[in-house]
Amino acid sequence: MDDSRPIFIQIAEKVENDIIEGTLPEEEQIPSINEFAAFYRINPATALKGVNRLVDDGIVAKRRGIGMFVTKGARNRLIKRRQERFAAEYVQPLIIEAQKLGISIDDLAGMLRAERIDA
Amino acid sequence: MSTPLVRASGLTKSYGGMTAVDSVDFSLEEGRIYGLLGRNGAGKTTIMQMLTGQLFPTSGTVEIMGREPAENAEALRRMCFIAESQRYPDSFSARHVFKAARWFFENWDAEFAEQLTAEFRLPLKRPIKKLSRGQLSSVGVIVGLASRAPLTFFDEPYLGLDAVARHLFYDRLLEDYTEHPRTVVLSTHLIDEVAKLLEHVIIIDQGRILLDQDADEVRGSATTVAGPQRTVDSFIVGRSVIGREGLGGLSSVTVQGRLSQPDRVQAAELGLELAPVSLQQLVIHLTGSAPEGAANTYGNSSKEAAA
């Protein structure tokens, strides 16, 4: 948890990451509000807000009397949304830092390719 | 919205020429955990004493469940107030305190108190006056938790408690609150430790409310901008500055108000560093300045508040 953003958003993002990484498969049950609250030591109302955000986004859905489950197609929707934000969140800061250090866009592209081979 | 559990309007307490609480208005909703934060002498305890009927307001009103708390047995039975230095009869041991508690609190859970006594390693039979400072605090913490009062106040409940015992308190509070929702008001100086437990935050300074907001709104509502002084100064134009520090040509300024994504990009392009401000740092910035009338010095005042 960091201090820069509301905790409920961070809770929602943790679940989203688990879905994207596959540790939380589609149609799997997510932890309950009380489990979130106890695990992250946060106010249950905050945990509820985080889960409600996922419900509003259609990432999880309630099954009456059982709990919350990851919806079908949630993973692809999340990946698509993250891809749309990727440029603003990752590429722009990279370019700004590169410019500060006098690294040209071509050099940067070369670095990315080299890194990719290493990885 | 339902009627609030507590409503204070124009609440004021003066002692002679000194105004400890200066016409504050706020309400507390049912089933929430509140943080009542501020420096020593800010008026937190006085407010809680007026809410629990221990002090009469000089002016203004308090309503608990729609009625005045003083001399109101029904409202008082539903409240629990754990003071910083809670006093007990000299001959009492912790066992006596817990035995008496069931007469005061209708929801008292003796089994829960027993469990907490074991977890806090509190000697039950030792006379209260022979307990260490931390053990004395755990007596209060146990009463506050096991009473399950619909309205529970913890006023600096853990003087002398070690880090393990404090975290035990937070964990049990959160667990028990989840199972038995109630309204809890936590007043503490250890703000970073409790920040995640709070749903709502009220910051008091010099008898007045500086901030009354949901904890989620407060989080990320202030940012520290650091970099070359001139660049920082140009970036903060039109923003609300609550703290300023400088070192040579560098400057570090804390601004209130959430930064937008374009703001962040602009800061990055200018080479400025942005750092989030924790709730504790925010309280220090908001309440750290010298009292009204004295010279308002930013920066150097934050050190004493942090102590």
Report on this structure.
The complex is a heterodimer of chains A (119) and B (307). Chain A is mainly α and 119 residues long. Chain A has helices at 7-21, 33-40, 44-56, 74-100, 105-118; strands at 60-63, 67-70. Chain A folds into 2 domains: 7-72, Winged helix-like DNA-binding domain superfamily/Winged helix DNA-binding domain (Arc Repressor Mutant, subunit A, Orthogonal Bundle), CATH 1.10.10.10; 84-118. In chain A, strands 1-2 form a two-stranded antiparallel ribbon. In chain A, a hairpin with a 3-residue loop joins strand 1 (60-63) and strand 2 (67-70). In chain A, helix 1 packs across helix 3 and helix 2 (33-40) packs across helix 3 (44-56). The longest helix of chain A is centred in the last third of the chain and has 27 residues, at 74-100. Chain B has 307 residues and is α/β, with parallel strands linked by helices. Chain B folds into 2 domains: 6-217, Rossmann fold (3-Layer(aba) Sandwich); 221-306, Alpha-Beta Plaits (2-Layer Sandwich). Chain B has helices at residues 44-51, 73-77, 94-104, 110-119, 133-146, 163-179, 191-194, 215-218, 229-235, 261-270, 279-287, 302-306, and strands spanning 6-15, 18-28, 33-37, 59-64, 79-82, 151-155, 183-187, 200-205, 208-214, 222-228, 240-247, 250-256, 273-276. In chain B, strands 5-6-7-3-8-9 form a 6-stranded mixed beta sheet, sandwiched between helices. Chain B has a 4-stranded antiparallel beta sheet with strand order 11-12-10-13, with helices on both faces. In chain B, a hairpin with a 2-residue loop joins strand 8 and strand 9. In chain B, helix 4 (110-119) runs antiparallel to helix 5 (133-146). Chain A binds chain B through residues 1-8, 34, 37-38, 40-46, 49, 88, 92-93, 96, 100, and chain B through 32-33, 170-171, 174-175, 177-178, 196-199, 215-217, 219-220, 223, 261, 265, 268-269, 271, 276-279.
